[in-house]
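Supplementary notes for students who missed Thursday's class. We covered one full example, reproduced here. Read the sequence, then the structure, then the short commentary at the end.
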Amino acid sequence: MARSKSSDATSSPKEKKQGRLAQLWTIFRMTRKADPAVVWWMLLGFFGTLAVSAGVGVLIDRMIFVVMLGLPIAFLLALVIMARRAERAAYANIEGQVGATATALRNLRRGWTVEEQPVAIDPRTQDHVIRAIGRPGVVLVTEGPLPRVARLVDKERKRITRVLPNVPVHVIHAGSGEGQVPLRKLTAKITRMRPVLSKTQAAEVTKHLRALGGARPPIPKGIDPFRARPDRRALRGR
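Structure (token representation):
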């Protein structure tokens, strides 16, 4: 037993390292497939950093030392470039699909609560409104053409102000059209909003709005087949 535990402990760091390298390689391959220019941008960042390091080293007569210091920085910069291009490619891949807004809002940082389901939806066109709650207040993010989502977002805003009249309600239209915010800039725009509520107040707003509920699918009234309990006597043959 002691040997197996020691062997697991010694092999786990190697497995984790191999897992990270494999993950980075997978991300690189997927990004290169969607954005072939990522290779050139990464090389530019890597060798550009080394060139600057060499120039600084020549000025202070410590070129080898400064270049060695610049190597990890150059490698890190190449990874940052890959991550940014991968994120942009991922957003471009899902843009225009139903539910893309909710997927983008999952990248919001701590302090934000995003509803998993739309709070308002048009079943005919699938236009909907996603609700996010944070210290700046309530943010309603629409998905769909502006003329069509106007009625949905106005109805939801009135519903919120009726219950919480002193809480700010912001509206952001997500999309690639005029007057809309692209998906890759959506989270940045939301996180830059000025906070007006405390953490406790934001938690209370979340609690109230969850109790208020959201959009419900048009299911006929009656027994819910997913909550119906089976007849145990019938199952036993009695």
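Commentary. The beta strands are 113-114, 120-121, 128-134, 137-143, 169-174. Residues 2-34 form the longest helix (33 residues). If anything here is unclear, bring it to office hours.
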